[in-house]
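QA checklist item 7 of 12: single-chain prediction sanity check.
[x] sequence parsed
[x] length recorded as 127
[x] structure emitted
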Amino acid sequence: MAAYIYYITGGLTVSLQVYNSFLAGQVNLVELEEDLPVVRYYGGQAAQLGRYWTTELYDSAVGAIEELALNPNFGNTADRVVNGVIPKGTQILTGYAASSGGLTGGGVQIFLQDPGVVRVLSDAATH
């Protein structure tokens, strides 16, 4: 039987893996007071809608992979980028991406309990 450790962050319960995906475990719970434009880099085994988003645009897939620490072992090729909006009133966790798999991290990272709340605006190939 596997043991799971969960952290409660202002009413959201997240796994240790999610908590550790934030730089130095520093994560903030925010309830959005207005709609928030967001971006998600995905491809390969990573789906268009997922729990991790950012507010930063990168010049290339390589830049997104490095700054968001999109570890290739998890199958995200970041060859596509989707723009969306998280609606006002949604609770998000936000902070900076921790390093992973030799990738630097440090980019703005947003975690959503329910990625289905994101309203997709556009989807395109990255450079």
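[x] summary fact logged: The CA atoms of residues 27 and 95 lie 5 Å apart.
[ ] second reviewer sign-off
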